[in-house]
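seq as requested:
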Amino acid sequence: MKPALQNAGGSKRLLILCTTTGYQTHAFVKAAEKLGLSVVFGTDRCHVLDDPWQDGALPLRFEDAEASARQIVEYARGSSVDAIVALGDRPTPTAARAAKVLGLPHHPPHAADICRDKYLSRERLRAAGLNVPAFIRLPLDSDPREAARASAIQFPCVLKPLALSASRGVIRADTPVEFASAFERIGEILRSAEVRVMHEETSGFIQVESYIEGREIAIEGVMEHGRLQVLAIFDKCDPLAGPFFEETIYVTPSRLSSALQASATENLERAARALGLFHGPLHAELRLNSEGIWILEVAARSIGGLCSRALRFRSPALGNVISLEELIIRLALAEEVQHFRREEAASGVMMIPIPQAGILEQVEGVDEARETQGVEDIRITAKPSQELIPLPEGSSYLGFIFARGATPEFVEEGLRQAHRKLRFIIQPALPVLKNSE
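struct tokens:
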């Protein structure tokens, strides 16, 4: 991908902070180009190689947010930066620090830090009087059987890493034996080379929380100078009861009653204030039951993967449809976005789950599934010969199905019908033979 690196004609420059992998980057670049912006990347790629991708990206280390922010500020002395957008969780603390020094609107650094740590965010939300699960944090080197006996959390409970996303490493345990097994399994994830290379302090702990029954929703929103604007409330159409928590279908508008939606919004407003979020995107996960609204997570970023394609917005002033990425960039440029509203049509996305571990050979039936009424597109993001790793160890999906229609029910049924037409040819992965010498 080759972003425009020059400020030709005095165009404004957008700095996109991202990791080397991710589905969102192309969508943000496309939105920036539509707005006439020059783009430069800041990524956590190798410092040793001299610009191996030939895209002029700033080589950063997101685990050291202070140092990375200083690099950005130094870059901005010679090349103006008019807006910063962070994709995913890891770059958010760096973006917040750089934006603060450069005087750009953003979430404050302390808010970005808290949202990156499930333990700190739970503490802050609990102190604000919001409903959160009971929770404790255990060192990674704890004896799992002793921890199960000593834990003050009652069963069922949920064990999770403090900073991984997309439900990776999140496991429900109903007994002490399941607790010990889950603790060891998460420990293996956190000790893996892939996670250790991120050098994050949060990887030294496992959080244990009480399991909260109820219906789960996601809320996509933005903070505009301290004011929450809810962009969409998604129903999560499949129950998330464990033992793993693989998300599948998101549909909006929500079918919850107006009263429940208003209550969820009010609780999210309180949560955003408690966490200190001020200007930028947010993505929240909530559960609802007879005891009220429970805040599971508030992230200082937009929805992940390709899921943003389920959202389109209109403005009476502009008239044309814009993407979530364009809205977020406009917000980062300090433009007012409160006049944007989601389109009237219902829409949804299915994150195609991985049915089994193995090597993907091919996906059949894609063309047939695309003909399903209401389905707009199907994107298979896993590549042939790619190893597929299901949750809780895995961190990706096979792909995405998108649908639109008159009602949420129509959209949900279209997504399910299309998925049933797909056939996944997966071969067992060959075991790795270790050298016996």
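Residues 1-9, 46-54 have pLDDT under 50 and may be disordered.
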